[in-house]
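Could you join me in thinking about how sequence relates to backbone shape in a protein? Would you write everything just below, so we can both look at the same thing?
***
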Amino acid sequence: MNIRFLHIIFLLCLSQSFAQTVISGKIISEKNIPLEGASVYFNNTTIGTITNKKGLFRFKIKDGNYILVVSYLGFKTHQLSIDTSKKQKEITIKLQEDNNVLDEILIKKTVYDDDWKYNLNRFKQTLLGRSKLSQECKILNEKDLHFEFNYKTNTLTAIAKKPLKIKHSGLGYLITYDLVDYTLQKNQLFFSGYARYENLRKSVKKKWKRNRQEAFNGSQMHFFRDLINNKYKENGFVVNQFKRVLNPERPSEEKIKSARELIKLNRRNINFSKTISNPTTHLDSALVTVKKARLPKYKDYLYKQNVPYEEIISFENNIPVLVFENHLMVIYTKEIEEENYLIGMFGKRKKASGVQTSNIVLQQGKAFLDRTGITVNPNALFNEGYWGFESFGNMLPLDYIKD
């Protein structure tokens, strides 16, 4: 199973400036009551705090554009775009009560049966990933997860009754993740949310520093940062271009459907162990068609190696934009694949290549990039291959700086 996924919503833009500014404010309810203990943080960073008894918070942060996230139990999560390079007055944020939150889930009580355990395992494998580092991620409040599975569409959805607490012993973070959406449909994963990272200890262990650097190397964050600065080639990335077309050897969906209906009508009279080299009847042809349905729906054709920089990225009003024809294959040459990646989701082993290969598939013709190493619009592209394998368990906060 080749999981393809959309990135978590990381709508934060950090400035490269060394100038700092103070951001302060107050969190209140609709009745103007100060909210003590509200969580205030910049999305997907280690920068965050809790409001005091008067509902006040205060940050000192580098100049730049940020998304400030405020969450408080029983209230709707609030997001606010902030440009800290401009003079800021004290920010007052009024949170709205969320009386209807999770009504459907509260009405339908979660049953922690074998189905729930099975869905939890799928959730962890797809969201956290199957990499070596992801094995050191532990969701501390698993029972706050509720799952629904639609058999008709083969779709698994997950809702978290409370923000997930994820302890990452490999990277040294406690991650508070406010899950907004999780949808797994067949082999496509869509997930989004707001993440706050906290160091597990004040002093960062050598192991954590080493693992953080390992997680960064070859990651999409690494590639995008190097791409923006036109340093991706010297740092071990090779970019090729490929087309994706329908597999001519695989029958059309209409033919497959007709073949299955014919087989269903004649099931009692079929010898399924029979080898058919030259079909002589309509039923023989149907059996051959159904066997060919197992072939991949698409084929990829590599047609350009070492794609020039100017054919990958452009700039609109100084904002970097991914824009290219067809699809990109990004190869990181300085690390090999992990064993779990080679084994695959269902134990079907891939042949080792000695490099890490990921695909970028644009969904909207272009994708605006943030200089921290993410896409501004998470729906703008799909990741396939190695980046999909690494998933959440290998992600770093956007204020991570490589040593």
Q: What stands out?
A: The first strand starts at residue 4 and ends at 6. Residues 114-127 form the longest helix (14 residues). The radius of gyration is 24 Å. The mean pLDDT is 87.
